Every structure is written in structure tokens, then in C-alpha cells.
Amino acid sequence: MFDTSAVRRATHSFLHALIVTPETELHALLTQRFAPDVRVRCAYPIGDLVGVEAFLEGFLLPLRRALPGGMRRDEIFIAGTTRMGEGDFVTALTHHVGNFERPFARVTPSGKLVFLRAGEMYRMDGETIVEATILFDLVDLMRQSGAMPLPAMLGTEMLFPGPATHDGVMPEHPERSQASAELVEAMLRDLRAFDPESYESQGQMGYWHRQMLWYGPGGIGANFTYPGFQRDHRIPFLTAFPDRVGGNHFCRFGDGDYVCSGGWPSMTMTHAGPYLGVPATGRALTLRVMDFWRCEAGSIRENWVLLDFGDLFAQMGVRLV
Q1: Which Pfam families is this protein grouped with (predicted)?
Q2: CA distances (Å), 218 to each of 10, 147, 200, in order?
């Protein structure tokens, strides 16, 4: 049986050690917790990496050298057994923090402080990581570096805040895990269908807290209350991709009041209307997604969302970097 508490603690310590351990010792450290043939899926433009050496050279060392002496700052850190497919997972919503001194993911460094937000999902075999999926926010890194590639955000540009309750890292109350997951899954089921005129979906106001906060990726931004979410994200998205079909997720579980879900890709859709400055192309597209939610007393109070816009826009024929 998956020992959620023990694996969370061990993986949390390991991931923080990856940021501070001397470079000469990193390979040995990685082999302690990564399977030799670990598969790592990274956001655009890094792509898929297979094996410890590929992860070290393709992601970890470039990240560390881009943010020398930097730190890892977790906002949510949870674990559980997925309700979709198979597998035990440790997942994180985190920021990689430091002065941006060398290029990363083709982004030109600013020499100034950045908070590189990322969602991470690690499939576990005991305490060994056998698969990793890392979705970092390329657009927001570019924005922080003074090279925003998209028009002004639909919502508000802001740093991803941690949960209002400040309990997202290894939360308590495992007895609430199932109810949290079921609440989010019910919301997602009802979200699939919508009125083409009002863009409303049945029952949504019953799932979301009246003071809900939705924290979107670079290019969309954050908003407050369900009407704000509709205005700043959902209506523009559905106008551009009215036939979108989602829910193809490889990981979804609850841990206390928190729930996460990820699809690689999650959505299939046709680019039928303008989106963030790009006219409709008519192309069939896919979208990689990670979500983290905080539930409170039977409602969804906060939602953090990461989208692989680098990959999405490349499919539209637009290269962001």
C-alpha cells in the first residue's frame, strides 16, 4: 500500500536537494531516487527526456545554471493514488526562484529576480520516481524577463500565491481526500457541456465558492469570482475552441483539501476563433494541462492552472521562443 505521508516527505527532501547539491554530486543523487530508464516529459521547448543523464543535462543543469544559487519554493505538495489509470503520484505546484543569469528554455535572461512557476507530477514505485511530468510557465517567464510574447493578459498579471490557508505543503486531514476529489470531478463533468450563447455550464455556481480565485497561466492571468473566470478565461477560450473535449488525464487524486489533475495532452480541439492575438487557423490542436485546487467546506475556493502555451502556439504556427 502507498505510504502517502512517508513518500511525500522523502520526495520533498529529494527535490529540494536537487537544487542545492553540488553539480559534481548530482548524478549520484539522481540515481538514488530516479529509475535508470525514467521518462521525463517537459513543457515546450524541452520535450521528452529518457534516463537520468538526459534529465540532468536537458533540464536540471540548465535550470540551475539559469538561476545560480537559487531556491525551490513549494506552494502545494501532495501525494496519492490516481483515480484515472494506474499509479501512485507525488505532485507539486512550485516556483524556482533566483536571479535569471543564463538562458533557459530559449528565453533570454534578464539578470533580475524571477519566480518560474511549474507544476510537477511524479509517478512512483515506492520511493522511486519512474516517470516525471514538468509543466513550467514559459510565457510568464518571458513576461518577467521583459519579453512578453502575447497581448496584454485577459485577467490580472500576478505571482502565483500560495493557498490562503498556508497549508498546501503536505496537508493534513486525509479523511477529506475522497470528498475533495469527488467535488472536483463532479465540477469537471458538468463543465464539459455549455450553452453556446451564454457559455454557462449546468451547476457551476454550486461547485465554486462565491469568492473563488482562479490563477491562470501567463497569457491569461488571474481573476476573482465565477463571473470573472467566465469573462477572463472561459468565454475567450470557448470562442476560440468551441468543440474542445477534455478530461484525458493521467493523474488525478485528492489529498486532504487539495486535488490535482493533469493531462498530456488533456484537450483536443479545433482553432475556430481568434485567441490571444492569433487569428483562427482551423487546425486541430491538443493542449497539455495541469490543475491544482483547494476545497473548503464543500466548495472549490482556489484553482491554480498551468497550460503548455509554447506547445499550443507552435501547433498554431506561432513560435513563442
Answers
A1: SnoaL
A2: 31, 12, 24
175-192 per-position pLDDT tens digit: 999 999 999 999 999 988
CATH number of 174-316: 3.10.450.50
Cis peptide before 265 (omega within 30 of 0): yes
Point out which residues pair with 286 in neighbouring strands.
Answer: 268
pLDDT digits (tens, 9 = 90+) for 72-111: 999 999 999 999 888 999 999 999 999 999 999 999 999 9
C-alpha cell at 54: 538526459
Give the whole-angstrom CA distance, residue 215 versus residue 206.
20
For the chain, which residues make up each domain, given as ranges?
4-144, 174-316
User: Quick one: average pLDDT of 267-292?
Assistant: 98
Which residues face 96 on adjacent strands?
Answer: 72, 116
Task: Note whether 300 and 209 are within 8 A (CB).
Answer: yes
Please indicate whether the domains covering 4-144 and 174-316 agree at the CATH topology level.
Answer: yes
Kindly report the CATH class assigned to 4-144: alpha beta
Among residues 310, 177, 312, 185, the alpha carbon closest in space to that of 247 is found at 185
- 3-state percent breakdown (helix, strand, coil) of the chain, nearest 5: 30, 35, 35
